[in-house]
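In the laboratory, one determines a bound structure by crystallizing the protein with its ligand and collecting diffraction data. In a computational setting the workflow is compressed into a single prediction: the sequence and the ligand go in, and a structural description comes out. We illustrate the idea with pyridoxal-5'-phosphate.
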Amino acid sequence: MSRSAHPAGPRYADVLPEGHYAAPPADLNTLDPRVWSRTVRRNADGVVTVGGLDVGALAEEFGTPAYFLDEDDFRARCRAWKDAFGPGADVFYAGKAFLSRAVVRWLAEEGLNLDVCSGGELATALSAGMPAERIALHGNNKSTEEITRAVEAGVGRIVLDSFQEIVRVAHIAERLGKRQRVQIRVTVGVEAHTHEFIATAHEDQKFGIALAGGQAAEAVRRALKLDGLELTGIHSHIGSQIFDMAGFEVSARRVVQLLTEVRDEHGIELPEIDLGGGLGIAYTSDDDPREPHEIAAALGDIVTRECAAAGLAVPRLSVEPGRAIVGPTAFTLYEVGTVKELTGLRTYVSVDGGMSDNIRTALYDAEYSVALVSRSSDAEPMLSRVVGKHCESGDIVVRDAFLPADVAPGDLLAVPATGAYCRSMASNYNHALRPPVVAVADGVARVIVRRETEEDLLRLDVG
Ligand SMILES: Cc1ncc(COP(=O)(O)O)c(C=O)c1O
Ligand SMILES: N[C@@H](CCCC[NH3+])C(=O)O
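The predicted complex, in structure-token form:
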């Protein structure tokens, strides 16, 4: 691997946008345990390891770019969520964050349930043996086919998202001679403090049925009249990458308020509430996420308190974390191809992937960390922008980061916290071949999603 020195370039530029790192970390070789998965270390030779395996050897065997998923960390996070919420609640892992058959098996073994939001996710879950009654189907526009398949399979829950869907699911269930357990997803009118595209509980957006104006109460009225439906509860998901628990508290309070109205109008106490997912993770050392036990305590307290005030029995609670389970468990490994210093600006470090394996920086202005992992370096910190190889100037992986000034072609860089919404949102832009996902545990690495090949691309091209 080349270690040729590179001119240092600007250091603490005046070019840093407000709110971004003010200064480089004291030691660029240090790996902050908040952003790296639990078994990641830098060994005595300066090389980073995961699950005891050296990234140089992993790159050799599996190529780059590739996602490396720390299985022990994934399982530990599943257990932490499950233990925090206890036997009186259910944890549904949100499969949209990342789903594969191995992941489904781990979830099933760790006692988690699974939230899917498409026919493809449902097929993956069922094919890997997740019991149907532990699956919830989501989506704001589920097709008749998807609903039929879910009802036939016997999924434990369908989350209804519109007035049309209430009738659609009821008809399908009746036709199949079944009574489908459903929840109604409501929008509680909370402005979650997150990027506009990933906030989902303010009223002006496509998900759910508004509490405001009595729409959600009307949805309950209609659902209760239909023989094909067993309405078990109310669902709310306020958005994603949220740190502040205040939004969840307001959401819980408003959902319990609806349960109270339902009791007063219909004389029934709906037995479940689901407060969705959306808990934030650390992408950089500036992020300070809550632990599952703190989240469980906060949500449990508020639901118990509100129910007591309303004289309701406490319903069974469920939550749907995706990012908070899988996000911190993986990093993406890249090889540096070119290093371009723009005098007085910054240094562009190009890697062999980009927006096709991580669209989040371009889409949400997401911030990530990055480290030189194939060796340690005592070179000075250099203000860098890690970019991909796509034909877009917005093809940025890490907008502002400090890397050692001697970073050079052939070096390996790793971007941590890419377990969620990176492989699952990956694309074939520029006919990129989507990278593999390699699970690492106890000194063994195995491919759980293989790298795409040119044959895969050409197989679809039937013209
Ligand atoms: C209904 C629902 N549940 C759960 C999630 C999972 O969110 P996160 O991965 O942020 O925990 C999402 C995505 O935002 C969602 O839309
Ligand atoms: N995909 C988004 C979050 C949306 C999750 C689905 N409702 C992200 O990467 O942050």
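The mean pLDDT is 93. Keep in mind that any predicted model is a hypothesis to be tested, not a measurement.
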